[in-house]
Amino acid sequence: MGPLSRAGALISACALALTLAAASPADAAVRLGAAPAVPAGSRIAGPLVASTPMRVTVTLQPQDPAGLSAFASEVSTPGSPLYRDYITPAQFAQRFGATSDEVQAVESSLRDHGLNPGPVSPNSLSIPVTATAGELSQAFSTSFSRIALSSGRTAIVNQQAPSLDAGIASDVQSVLGLDTLTAAKPLLVRAHAASALAPQPKPHVVTGGPQPCPAATQAATNQGGLTDDQIASAYGLSGLYQSGGAAGAPDEGAGQTVAILELEPYDPSDVAAYEQCYGVNALIANVEVDNGAGSGAGSGEAALDIENVIGLAPQARIAVYEGPNQGTGPYDTFSQIISGRVAQVLSASWGQCEPLDGQIAAENTLFQEAAAQGMTILSASGDDGSEDCYPVPPTLQVDDPASQPFVTGVGGTSLTENSSGTRLAETVWNDGPAVGASGGGVSTFWGMPGYQSGAPSFLHVINANSSGTPCTASSGDCREVPDVSADGDPATGYMIYWNGSNTGGPGAPVGWQAVGGTSGAAPAWAAMIALTNASARCGGVPIGFANPALYHAAATAYSSDFNDVTSGNNDMTGLNAGMFPAGSGYDMATGLGTPNAAALAATMCTDAISLANPGAQRTIRGSAVTLKIQAVDTRGAAVTYAATGLPRGLSISSATGKITGKPNQVGTSNVTVTASDPGGTTATTAFHWTIQTAPKLSRVSLSSVGAARPKLALTVAAGRDAPELKSISVTLPRGLHFTRSRATVTVTAKNGRRLRFTVSLQRAALVLKLRSTAEQVRVTISSPRLAASDSLTAALARHQATRVTLTVRVTDAGKRTTRLPAKVKPS
Asked: Which has the closest alpha carbon to 518: 345, 378, 360, 404?
């Protein structure tokens, strides 16, 4: 697949097409990208005080960007040999994160310019820096101004693009947080703002899922909103609840974690009131990012997101990540969710007009990481119809991150049900500029991904409104948004409990209320994906990046898996000739349509094998090996295993996937494991397996003990085909001990050069950690660091001492520790 066109131009502008501040010297300064454009109607309010505290995030280029994009696509695409062969965060960091040399080079450059970089992120893609405006100004050769925006808000802007040392310029993707011009919008719309509300009384719907209390039902009757049992009934979640989960219990999302990105706080008492009404008790964890999002009830966005997931998937765990809605906050929050991978599904209901979001390229790398690790990301497509930059100017634009090619964009509909909870009709949600409309259209940054360009013609993904012009595609068309939809109209909105403590501000509604916007649609889809993952059909194997599976489902069983929305358009202002109209199949107002969840889940859980990659292996020649390859068939079928390239002496059990034996030949093998089921479905994974010899201990001597000046010397060499040595630990026999003296310890390399190291005493063992690795070292430890007991000294003086055993533990650069006992006769 791979994002095309303006995406490539954007990444080039941010990271590759760098402007040289000086011509040719090796230490020339390099400008990264361009300074942000100041919005129309803004004015400079003055310089920024130098002591102003700021936080920036330096994002790093991944290893092999093309390989990352290809892998993220293949692991998510039905029919690919790598389908659902997800990797772990550690494997991602090793395979695609910046290398340790690149990280160290960037950190060193930042320090050279007076900054104090924080720890690199677990995925090796970003480095945080906290400093004053003056320190950042000097480090990046830029100046800062305060800008008075037309909205009345004051923002910070850097007047010049950041300057970097030429030696690290190609390693850096962007420097985020130098300006605070834009902020993400919560994509929530309140029912009381709608132009026409008509109460729509409906009874409870027995879905197999949670049922609301009378207070919620009465409020829904009064306001025209829908309780979550009615939403579940309309979208076919009843079939999932009743079909049972992977463990045989009712499918309510057990075993799944849904991460919710929030850029505002929420009041836990609101969520508790909602749970009490529905008789559920979800496990909720809060994670603060960059000191969190503040305190209070928020605007209701967080309450909507959390309560919607709880009401539809009550057994799923909820992880709420709260970050600040400025500077690096959105990127850092996404980064922590994805690099931590505690969740299988991520719901985001905050967005920005695509051209205004300066973090797009860096976010795209994160979303590819999420796909590689098997995470589904659902994002609301915006509430300004086809004009996401509304009100200035009302041109055709879409919302980020919904438009990202590795994100599932979720639009909004107007949902009409009958008295039994059955869906009667759905149209595009469009209440005009006073309220809002379903976001969608053509991306100005991303080329059309393969799951859209390869869709069959009857789905009409490529249609009369498709175009390659907005994203300047060299061939083909641009990415189209949204991918799917659900209820978004506040007149048929979601009933939530918010502002129960009446602290939401003057005139804010209190308690049960109907809200809409694509903000409600995204968490509804997140709950459905969690239920799908947990279903017996999927067997707990996560769907991962959902778009390839969604478009595949539409291509194979569209009429049963989706409700086709064919009425309305999302031209919110009426100034764009009805762009974009709903129609048969796909359209840029509602995507593929809304879900028939039980049928769609069955199709998305296509016969597939999830085959875990064990990562690179390293074994000492002649030692026993036991490695279990893990594979799960989504249909529960038995899996058989085969392997090629195994080191000599090893074999795999076709029935259990267990690799056993004793390798007998040194070297590195490229191992490929294939798992198959009786239906012919296969999955493959590959990894390196290195067979090495153990490190060798030689030339061990223990002298001058009888003279009360003991001296220990030994030589350690790394094994053949093994990583170099990193640390050495020495444990002494009875009669000898180490003191805390800092003197008389030397470590020399094979050529006699002295090596730098740190030394410490840990549980009577002397531990030497090398500052740099070495193939072979000679260690000498002398008195007064080494001391002997009086009894041992006296015994040696009488020539009565026999051989003693000391233990040397060697740890190599691959973190493998080997115990090497040695017998030596003291003298």
From this structure: 378
Q: Which strands sit side by side in the sheet containing 126-132, from one edge to the other?
A: 126-132, 53-60, 172-176
Q: Where are the domains of the chain?
A: 6-176, 185-602, 609-692, 696-824
Contact (Cβ atoms closer than 8 angstroms) between residue 299 and residue 505? no
Question: Under 8 Å CB-to-CB from 817, ≥6 apart: which residues?
Answer: 809, 810, 811
Please answer whether residues 659 and 651 qualify as being in contact, where contact means their C-beta atoms are separated by less than 8 angstroms.
yes
Burial of 507 (0-12, 13-18, 19+ CB in 10 A): exposed
> What is the model's pLDDT at position 801?
63
- Measure the CA–CA gap between 752 and 755, rounded to whole angstroms: 9
Domain 185-602 in CATH 3.40.50.200? yes
Q: Do the Cβ atoms of 167 and 109 come closer than 8 Å?
A: yes
* pLDDT for the residue numbered 191: 62
Secondary element (H or E) of residue 586:
none
Beta bridge partners of 780: 713, 746
Three-state secondary structure call for residue 28:
coil
Q: Which pLDDT score, from 0 to 100, does residue 12 have?
A: 41
Q: State which amino acid sits at residue 260.
A: I
Q: What is the pLDDT of residues 588-601, one digit of tens each?
A: 999 999 999 999 99
Percent of the chain with pLDDT over 90: 74
The CATH superfamily holding the domain 609-692 is: Immunoglobulins (2.60.40.10)
Q: What's the 3-state SS for 709-763?
A: CCEEEEEEECCCCCCCEEEEEEECCCCEEECCCCCCEEEEECCCCECCEEEEEEC
Q: Residues for the chain: how many in total? A: 827
Helical axes 268-278 vs 214-223, angle rounded to 10°: 100
Angle at the Cα of 593 (from 587 to 598), degrees rounded to 5?
155
Positive or negative torsion for Cα 44, 48, 52, 53:
positive
Same fold, 185-602 and 696-824: no
Best CA proximity match to 524, nearest among 705, 363, 313: 313
Instruction: Find out if CATH 3.30.540.10 is the number for domain 696-824.
Output: no
Phi/psi for 390 (5° steps) reads: -50, 140
Rounded CA separation 255/251 (Å) = 10
Task: Tell me if 371 sits within 8 A of 406, measured CB to CB.
Answer: yes
Q: Which residues contact 280 (CB under 8 A, 6 or more apart)?
A: 210, 310, 311, 314
The token duo for 421 is 């909870």
Cα(495)–Cα(216) distance, integer angstroms? 7
Consecutive H or E run containing 338? helix 329-340
37 — pLDDT class (breaks 50, 70, 90): confident
